[in-house]
Write a sequence for this structure.
């Protein structure tokens, strides 16, 4: 009964001699038994667990913040986005030219998903397809100057950042960052307690203190950087909301879900038009090569070949002249004999 009232650690130490004498333990069991001698074992394990999982948690948070920042940067600074919106406005003013709405200076972004509903009079196409075709065939378009038009991409074509950003919430990001900062402070408190309450002559405390002090210093700098990055991303998002005329209370899903849907449809027409340009360039190169062959075939040759009869007659004439000269030479060398 007195033994049951003792703490588990003391009970293990009390039983160790009898275990060692009666039944020697295997190395794994001895290792587990030796952990009982480590001061503040639970606190140390919590510190090491936080250190081992810190990089993965920080990378996951960093990826979310950078995805949201990239999506904002695309909408604010992409020339393709500005050209696309300019063409939408120009087409709308042209179609509404005979009405008071034909001189608009802007439009509501809610009409973007409805561009495919406006059908063209020629062919099975729509307004979105026409705008994408116009973008691809602009004089300064990289598609027209590229040697591989079908491989050219743009910021609006299947932009995965829009879909990923639409699933994020600043409240969740703030909570994740606060949890990281809270766990950081807890780890610092645990490490301080372990170092203070462990004897200096303990060899294990030296390695623990050096490893954790270096890690805590680096992790604090990394968390401060992520905190600044999240603040800058919030400012970027506020610029996007103000630039495109969204409500001040808009969330990422309100802004980027619209662009995510448009990006998927935009990509379909972009790929189709890029392949069409590639086919046209191939046909133009084939026609140019064919014209070059026809020109070379019609050009007169400097060496006119003679027919077979002419060649044979020339050879026979040359042979006859040579035989006649040989007979004349022989008659001049051998004198004739008289009677």
């Amino acid at each position: 009964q007195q033994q049951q009232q003792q703490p588990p650690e003391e009970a293990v130490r009390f039983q160790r001699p009898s275990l060692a004498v009666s039944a020697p333990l295997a190395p794994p069991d001895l290792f587990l038994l030796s952990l009982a001698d480590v001061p503040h074992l639970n606190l140390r394990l919590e510190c090491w667990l936080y250190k081992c999982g810190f990089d993965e948690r920080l990378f996951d948070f960093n990826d979310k913040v950078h995805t949201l920042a990239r999506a904002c940067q695309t909408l604010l600074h992409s020339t393709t986005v500005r050209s696309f919106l300019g063409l939408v406005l120009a087409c709308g003013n042209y179609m509404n030219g005979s009405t008071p709405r034909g001189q608009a200076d802007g439009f509501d972004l809610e009409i973007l998903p409805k561009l495919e509903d406006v059908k063209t009079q020629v062919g099975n196409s729509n307004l979105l397809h026409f705008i994408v075709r116009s973008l691809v065939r602009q004089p300064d378009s990289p598609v027209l100057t590229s040697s591989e038009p079908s491989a050219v991409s743009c910021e609006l074509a299947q932009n995965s950042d829009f879909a990923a950003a639409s699933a994020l919430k600043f409240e969740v990001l703030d909570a994740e960052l606060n949890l990281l900062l809270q766990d950081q402070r807890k780890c610092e408190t645990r490490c301080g307690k372990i170092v203070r309450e462990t004897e200096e002559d303990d060899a294990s405390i030296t390695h623990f203190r050096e490893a954790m002090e270096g890690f805590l210093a680096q992790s604090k700098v990394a968390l401060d950087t992520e905190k600044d990055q999240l603040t800058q991303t919030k400012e970027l998002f506020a610029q996007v909301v103000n630039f495109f005329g969204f409500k001040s209370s808009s969330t990422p899903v309100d802004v980027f879900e619209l662009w995510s849907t448009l990006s998927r449809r935009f990509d379909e027409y972009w790929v189709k038009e890029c392949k069409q340009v590639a086919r046209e360039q191939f046909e133009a190169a084939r026609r140019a090569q064919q014209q070059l062959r026809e020109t070379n075939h019609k050009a007169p040759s400097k060496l006119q070949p003679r027919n077979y009869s002419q060649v044979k007659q020339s050879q026979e004439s040359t042979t006859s002249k040579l035989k006649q000269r040989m007979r004349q030479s022989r008659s001049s060398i051998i004198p004739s004999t008289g009677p």
Remarks:
- The mean pLDDT is 81.
